[in-house]
Specification:
Helices cover about 80% and strands about 0% of the residues. By secondary structure, it is mainly α. The chain has one domain. Keywords: Membrane, Transmembrane, Transmembrane helix.
Length: about 200
C-alpha cells in the first residue's frame, strides 16, 4: 500500500511547472520597466521581480528533487481528469498565443503599437478564467479579474487620455508583475506544504 504521506507526482509536477512559469513571467514583466522607466525606478522594479523569480525557482528545484519519491498511483477518475485538463490547458494556451500575436499585428497595422502591451496583459488576464474552471482553483479567478482590469485600464488610458505610453506601459508591467508574483507566492506556499509532507530522508 502507498504511504499516505507521499505527494502525488502529478500534483508535484504541476506546482513545479507553475513556479517556473511564474518565475519567467514575473521577471519578464518587471523587466519591461527598464525601457519605460529609465533610471532607479525601472532598476528597482526589475531587481525585485528577478529576486522573486529566483525565490520561485529555488522552491521549484527543492520540490522537484523529491519527485522520485512521489506517488505515481492514480484512480481511473483522476487519470481521466488529468488527461482532460491537459488537453484543455493546451487549447487555452494555444488560443492565448494566437490572440496575442493577432493583437500585436492588428494594432501595429492600424498605427496603434502603443496599445500592444496593455492588450497582451488583457489577453493574459482573460486566459486565467478558463484556467480556474480547468484546474478548479479559485485563485485563478481573482488573478484573471485583477490582470484583466490592469490591461483594460491601460488600453482605456491610452485611448482616451494624454498620458504617455511609457508611463502606462510601466504601470501595466508593474501590475502584471505583481499579479504573476502573487501567483508565484501561491505556488510557493503549496510547495512548502508538499515538502512538509515529504517523509524524512526523501
Amino acid at each position: 500500500m502507498t504511504d499516505p504521506r507521499l505527494v502525488p507526482r502529478a500534483l508535484l509536477d504541476g506546482v513545479v511547472v507553475g513556479l517556473v512559469l511564474m518565475a519567467v513571467f514575473t521577471a519578464a514583466w518587471s523587466a519591461n520597466t527598464l525601457g519605460t522607466w529609465p533610471g532607479a525606478a525601472g532598476f528597482v522594479v526589475t531587481a525585485l521581480g528577478v529576486l522573486a523569480a529566483v525565490w520561485f525557482l529555488v522552491s521549484a528545484v527543492r520540490l522537484a528533487r523529491t519527485r522520485r519519491r512521489a506517488s505515481t498511483e492514480t484512480t481511473p477518475e483522476e487519470e481521466r481528469w488529468r488527461k482532460r485538463s491537459g488537453i484543455a490547458f493546451g487549447w487555452v494556451f494555444t488560443v492565448e498565443a494566437v490572440l496575442i500575436v493577432a493583437a500585436a499585428n492588428v494594432l501595429g497595422a492600424v498605427g496603434r503599437p502603443d496599445l500592444v502591451l496593455p492588450a497582451i496583459a488583457l489577453v493574459v488576464g482573460l486566459h486565467f478564467y478558463p484556467m480556474a474552471r480547468i484546474f478548479r482553483r479559485r485563485v485563478d479567478t481573482w488573478l484573471a479579474t485583477v490582470l484583466s482590469a490592469v490591461g483594460l485600464a491601460g488600453l482605456l488610458t491610452l485611448l482616451f487620455t494624454a498620458v504617455s505610453r511609457d508611463t502606462v506601459w510601466g504601470l501595466v508591467a508593474c501590475g502584471a508583475a505583481l499579479t504573476t508574483g502573487a501567483y508565484g507566492v501561491y505556488f510557493t506556499r503549496i510547495a512548502a506544504g508538499l515538502l512538509a509532507r515529504t517523509p524524512p530522508g526523501a
